[in-house]
Amino acid sequence: MSLTIWQVDAFAEKPFEGNPAAVCVLPEARDAAWMQAVGREMNLSETAFLVANEGGYNLRWFTPAVEVDLCGHATVASAHVLWEEGYLRKDETAHFDSRSGPLSARRDGDWIELDFPAQPPRQAEAPAGLAEALGAELMYTGRTPFDLLVELSTEDVVRGLRPDMAAIKALADRGVMVTARASTAPFDYVCRFFGPAAGVDEDPVTGSAQCALGPYWQERLGKGDLLGYQASARGGTLRVRPRGERVLIAGKAVTVLKGELLA
Q1: Is 92 annotated in the active site?
Q2: What pLDDT was estimated at residue 1?
Q3: Do 228 and 188 form a contact (C-beta atoms < 8 A)?
Q4: Which terminal Cβ of the chain has fewer Cβ within 10 Å, N or C?
Q5: 42 and 154 co-located in one domain
Q6: pLDDT category, 171, cuts 50, 70, 90?
Q7: The domain spanning residue 159 has which CATH number?
């Protein structure tokens, strides 16, 4: 039996920007080995699998190498598919059960807004070799449940990084997010995300990183509503609104491929 699979550019204003994710809505649950094999075949930073349940959908995410506990851009992509393909009315909230608990997504005009758990970083000593791996002076280092968060001196430094991926892989369980206050209007901060340990050297746009970056920059800038830019080669804009124990993360999405999965 064939399955439909979509590829969606998330946190993108138009095709070929933002972060591409594959989305597959399954009639019933499949085993993790099969989902991992599909994730490896798609070779995108994440492939999302959805199975309907009583309250919404079970949602799981796979990189080409591992299953991850939380993913923003593939959740944006999943909600986009549910609305565009008629699984949900466009005025319905999409509810997801995930390894990080209940999540949701709603439409706000052209934006898709996620409701995710806040994960503010705690300050921590930088692992030995981190500055050398990034090739930059570290202004702040913190840890979240998944990643390291590093503030650098300027937006130009963030944009110009050419990190040693082998060294980064040895230093972080999942990844290293780097950030700086933005010097480019209208953005409040810029960021990049390196995740070689999860099979993705540089993630184009990382929604889950905003669970930490939102609270971090809210505290430093004194702003409740933030606009971030992920300065990867593809680039992506994120609207981020920390709200206590939750963070509202919004972006746009566009479908670029629709096909049949035959295996």
Answers
A1: no
A2: 67
A3: yes
A4: N
A5: no
A6: confident
A7: 3.10.310.10
Residues 190 and 76 in one domain: no
Read off the tokens for 261: 């999965």
Tokens describing residue 193? 């995300």
The conformation of residue 177, written as its DSSP 8-state character, comes to E
Q: Are residues 146 and 174 in the same domain?
A: yes
Q: Return the structure tokens found at 174.
A: 């999942």
Whether a cis peptide bond, with omega within 30° of 0, leads into 15 is no
Structure tokens at 92: 């319905």
Alpha helices (runs of H) in 25-134, residue ranges in sequence order:
32-42, 73-84, 130-134
pLDDT of 173 strictly over 80: no
The pLDDT tens digits of the residues spanning 176-219 come to: 999 999 999 999 999 999 999 888 999 999 999 999 999 999 99
Structure tokens at 138: 């570290």
Question: What sign has the CA pseudo-torsion 248, 253, 257, 259?
Answer: positive
Containing structural domain, residue 38: 3-115+251-261
Say whether both 127 and 227 belong to one domain.
yes
Q: What is the rounded CA–CA span in Å between residue 174 and residue 170?
A: 10
97 plus 138 within the same structural domain: no
Q: What SS3 state is found at 232? A: coil
pLDDT of residue 198: 87
Phi, psi of 104 (to 5 degrees): -150, 165
Q: Catalytic one among 17, 46, 113, 155?
A: 46
Do 198 and 132 share a structural domain?
A: yes
Output the CA angle 26-31-33, nearest 5 degrees: 120
Residues 16-47: tens digit of each pLDDT: 999 999 999 999 999 999 999 999 999 999 99
pTM: 0.94
